[in-house]
Amino acid sequence: MTIEELSARLERVERANRRMRALGAAALLVLAGLVTAGFANSTWRDVKHDRIEIVDKQGKTRIRLSADDDGSPWIVLSDIHGGTGVSLSVSPDKTPFLKLSGPADIGSAILMVGKDADPKLLLSGSKFTDESAALSLGSQGPGLRISAGKGKGSASVSALGGDPALLVFDKDGRIRSVVGSAQIKTDRPKVFETTEPSSVVLFDKDGKVLERLPR
Fold first, then answer.
1. Who has greater pLDDT, 156 or 93?
2. Per-residue b/e over 185-204, b at no fewer than 16 CB within 10 Å?
3. Which residues pair with 180 in a beta bridge?
4. Under DSSP, is residue 145 helix (H, G, I), strand (E, B) or coil?
5. Does 89 share its domain with 185?
6. Percent of the chain clearing pLDDT 90 (strictly above)
7. Do residues 196 and 181 touch, judged by C-beta distance below 8 A?
8. pTM of the model
9. Reported confidence tier of residue 144, pLDDT bands at 50, 70, 90
10. Tens of pLDDT along 29-69?
11. Which of 70, 81, 144, 145 has an alpha carbon within 20 to 30 A of 24's alpha carbon?
12. What is residue 140's predicted lDDT score, i.e. its pLDDT?
C-alpha cells in the first residue's frame, strides 16, 4: 500500500467517524437497553458485532472498534472535540499502520510496515502548507525524503545499494543536483556510470549534466 492510498483510506475513516458522532447518544441508549435486557447477568465472552462505539458523558464517540466491508479492522480514538486522534488498522494487503493526528489541520504521523516488510514513517504538516518528511528502511538501504509541499522542491538522503548520496529535486520532481554517488547516462544505451561518493553533479531540467566535480 502506498502513502497516497493509505492517506485516502484514513480520510474515509475520519469522515465516517464524524458522521457517527451524531449517533453516539442513540448508541448509548441502545447499549443501556441491552444491559437491562440481560447482558448484566451474562458474560461478554461471545459478544460479536461489526461495530462497537464507546461514548463519553456528552454522548460523543471517543472509541470506535469496527470492521470494514473489505475486512480491515479499525481502532479509532477521538479527542474531546470529536476529531480523530489515533487510528490503528491492518489493510486488506496485510499492511499494518498507526496514525497519530494533531488538532485540526496541524499535522500527523503515520507508521506502517508494508507487505515487503519495509518500515516507513511519514510526517505531514498542516494541509495548508503540505510539508512532509518520509523515512524508510528497505531491502536496498535506508532513505529520508523531505518536501516543501506541492509545486515546490524536495530533497532526499539515501544509501541505496551501499552508495550514500544527497539528491535535490526541482518542483517537477526532476533531479537537479547530487552530492555523493550518482547515476550518469553514458553514450551507450541503458548503460550508466556510478560516480564516487566524493562527487558533485549538477543536471539541467532535461537530465543532462551541467557540471561535474571532480571532472
1. 156
2. eeeeeeeeeebeeebebebe
3. 165
4. strand
5. no
6. 31
7. yes
8. 0.68
9. very high
10. 555 555 455 544 555 566 677 888 888 888 888 999 998 88
11. 70
12. 78
Cell of 97: 499502520
| C-beta of residue 169 within 8 angstroms of C-beta of residue 154 | yes
Shared domain for 202 and 116, answered yes or no, is no
| pLDDT for position 81 | 79
Q: Residue 183 corresponds to which cell in the numbers above?
A: 547515476
Are 69 and 41 contained in the same domain? Answer: yes
**What amino acid occupies position 104?**
A
Q: Looking up cell 504538516, which residue turns up?
A: 125
Question: How many structural domains are present in the chain?
Answer: 2
> Do 115 and 144 lie in a common domain?
no
Q: What is the rounded CA–CA span in Å between residue 104 and residue 81? A: 10
Q: Distances in Å between the alpha carbon of 7 and those of 4, 174, 197, 213?
A: 5, 24, 35, 41
Nearest one of 12, 16, 9, 8 to 82, comparing CA atoms: 16
Residues 88 and 66 both lie in one domain:
yes
Residue 15 CA, chain-centre distance (Å), reads: 17
Half-sphere exposure of 83 (CA within 13 A, CB side): 12
Question: Does 64 share its domain with 90?
Answer: yes
Report whether 143 contacts 158 (CB < 8 A): yes
Helices and strands in the chain, H and E counts: 2, 16
Beta partners for residue 33, in sequence order: none
